[in-house]
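Dear support,

I submitted the protein below through the web form. The confirmation email said the job was done, but the results page showed an empty box. After a refresh the structure appeared. I'm attaching both so you can tell me whether what I see now is the final result or a partial one.
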Amino acid sequence: TASQGKYGETIPLLQRVVEMDPQFAIADYQLGLMYVSIGEPELAVASFGKAYELRESVDEQDRLAIISMYYEKVLGDYTQAIKYLKQWSELYPRSAAPLGSLADLETQVGRADLAIAVGKRDVDLNQKSVTAYTTLARAQMRMGQLEEAVQTCSLAMSREVDDASIHVLLYQIGYL
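What the results page shows now:
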């Protein structure tokens, strides 16, 4: 259900999983992601906090996901979140999972130049993700690379990855 964008419908399922197995760190982590997706940051913080407490029970890749999200969403420490996202992407270079968050945070902290390289890797590994394209195009916009941002949006549409967010970016680029 989550992969279909039905985040609200996914929450009760994950809540049930957490009830059945209170030590299931990944269920708490996924529940936190769903809460973020529906705009419930307080509930997300609680879920990420519990996942963080249980982080030693998961494999390395999941542990890095939990730690980076904990620093980002619970503590608001983007520097530490970036550190763990970089570590994750270096240990698992073929995984697209950390790249979108890493590019987004690099842009948010004013390092859009670093976000562009990460964003390009994300688009290469994650060609059907609208978020990959929008994150890259946003970084390119912040660096004043407006033509490149338009090309990124056009690439998304040519790959049939089209979403209102792509058109909002094109509108913003047109305005600039």
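Response: this is the final, complete result; the empty box was a page-load delay. Residues 70 and 133 are 25 Å apart (CA to CA).
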